[in-house]
């Protein structure tokens, strides 16, 4: 089929020239006529009617009313990634447009990232690397001892599919696993990973050596971890965040890390992203920050594109949609 006859997909944020993005474009071109944001802006009049789907490639708040008003035939916005807090679902739905996400592709790489951050913080990997490459060779490990993950207690806040995959990995480290979630998991699922349910988040915070945040960002989870919650954690505990930055009250975290209320933090997400260069979190030495790379693997990029393509085709062909997200 000629590319013009295929349904048009507007690509947000795929404009790079990196090999991995070109590979995604190859996958998408099998089913769609690809339209970049640049092409769209240069030739809005002619192109806008052709666009039936939008592929959101990065976690950015890019879909506004003005864009939706300019796309009369839009049927679906396919988000890469599971979190859709950057999309105004109610507003999008008022245009009769569906939103989909990619929960399957993200679960393993994001859980891996949680483990990577926990291990890196526990064993002070970033400092170790800096010491190894520094010109001063007179460093003694005894001056910067880490802590062990093996047999420690891990508290997982948010036991959806990513949280559960973290628990599966933590079991291999003989960790004691606690979790807090809106809904308790089935008994068989708890037993399979040896996880204990804490109805009260406070109990989990008080007992855990590592607390990992894996919740969606919603009005209920906004600043879920603040001064009070940090104060409940052990002074030897580490806070890991692989969900969304705004789940933590960052001012309270700065204070807690400065005053050694907790041992350390390891964050893949912050607000805003990236943090301003003079942000106090960047001045601390008991923190590791990565730039929201939970799904930044070659494999995840491909799986997310495949999952998004399946979602878009289902909407356009009127089939059951594998992963639709509904406004609350
Ligand atoms: O899937 C998502 O929404 C992520 O942010 C993964 O890190």
UniProtKB/TrEMBL annotation:
Q: Which Pfam families match?
A: 2-Hacid_dh, 2-Hacid_dh_C
Asked if Oxidoreductase is a keyword of the record, the answer is yes
Q: Show the InterPro entries listed in the entry.
A: D-isomer_2-hydroxyacid_DH, D-isomer_2_OHA_DH_cat_dom, D-isomer_DH_CS1, D-isomer_DH_NAD-bd, NAD(P)-bd_dom_sf
Q: Which residue intervals define the domain D-isomer specific 2-hydroxyacid dehydrogenase catalytic in the entry?
A: 29-325
The residues covered by the D-isomer specific 2-hydroxyacid dehydrogenase NAD-binding domain are: 115-294
Q: Which CDD domains match?
A: GDH
Q: What are the record keywords, sorted?
A: Oxidoreductase
Protein family according to the UniProt entry? Belongs to the D-isomer specific 2-hydroxyacid dehydrogenase family.
The protein's name: Glyoxylate reductase
Q: Which organism is it from?
A: Willisornis vidua
């Amino acid at each position: 089929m000629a590319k013009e006859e295929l349904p048009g997909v507007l690509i947000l944020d795929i404009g790079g020239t990196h090999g991995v993005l070109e590979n995604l474009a190859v996958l998408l071109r099998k089913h769609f006529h690809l339209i970049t944001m640049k092409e769209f802006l240069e030739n809005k009049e002619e192109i806008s009617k052709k666009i039936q789907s939008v592929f959101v490639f990065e976690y950015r708040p890019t879909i506004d009313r003005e864009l939706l008003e300019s796309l009369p035939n839009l049927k679906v916005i396919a988000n890469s990634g599971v979190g859709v807090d950057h999309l105004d679902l109610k507003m999008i739905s008022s245009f009769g447009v569906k939103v989909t996400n990619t929960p399957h592709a993200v679960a393993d790489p994001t859980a891996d990232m949680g483990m990577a951050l926990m291990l890196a913080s526990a064993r002070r990997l970033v400092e170790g690397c800096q010491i190894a490459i520094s010109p001063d060779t007179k460093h003694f490990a005894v001056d910067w001892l880490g802590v062990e993950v093996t047999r420690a207690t891990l508290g997982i806040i948010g036991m959806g599919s990513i949280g559960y995959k973290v628990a599966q990995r933590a079991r291999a480290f003989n960790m004691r696993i606690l979790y807090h979630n809106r809904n308790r998991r089935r008994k068989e699922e708890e037993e399979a990973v040896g996880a204990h349910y804490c109805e009260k988040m406070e109990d989990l915070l008080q007992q855990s050596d590592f607390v990992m945040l894996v919740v969606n960002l919603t009005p209920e989870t906004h600043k879920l971890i603040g001064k009070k919650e940090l104060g409940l954690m052990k002074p030897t505990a580490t806070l890991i965040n692989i969900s969304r930055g705004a789940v933590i009250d960052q001012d309270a975290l700065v204070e807690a890390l400065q005053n050694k209320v907790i041992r350390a933090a390891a964050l893949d997400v912050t607000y805003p992203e990236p943090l301003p260069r003079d942000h106090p979190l960047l001045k601390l030495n008991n923190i590791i920050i990565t730039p929201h790379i939970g799904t930044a693997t070659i494999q995840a990029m491909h799986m997310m594109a495949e999952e998004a393509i399946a979602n878009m085709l289902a909407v356009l062909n009127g089939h059951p949609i594998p992963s639709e997200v509904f406004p609350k």
